[in-house]
């Protein structure tokens, strides 16, 4: 019985790890997209007071 608990725990840990990786990749893509959008709108060194 303890073997099934160990297997279930390992499966859950792998799922949590995989979901965390996919979430991190999504956040990184979103950060890059925001940076591209900011640069397309005038960049970080412009005199626009809103940036």
Write the topology of this structure:
Layout: H1 2-40
From the structure above, extract its key features.
51 residues; mainly alpha; 1 helix; 76% helix; rod-shaped
Describe the overall structure.
The protein has 51 residues and is an all-alpha fold. It is built from 1 helix and no strands. The radius of gyration is 21 Å and the shape is rod-shaped.
Summary, kept brief:
With 51 residues, the protein is mainly α.
Radius of gyration: 21 Å
* Mean pLDDT across residues: 85
The largest sheet is:
none
Query: Secondary-structure element sequence?
Result: H
Secondary structure category: mainly alpha
The share of residues in extended strands comes to: under 5%
* N- and C-termini, Cα separation: 59 Å
Number of helices: 1
């Amino acid at each position: 019985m303890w073997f099934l608990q160990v297997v279930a725990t390992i499966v859950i840990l792998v799922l949590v790890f995989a979901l965390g990786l996919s979430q991190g990749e999504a956040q990184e893509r979103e950060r890059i997209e925001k940076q591209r959008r900011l640069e397309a709108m005038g960049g970080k060194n412009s005199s626009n007071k809103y940036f």
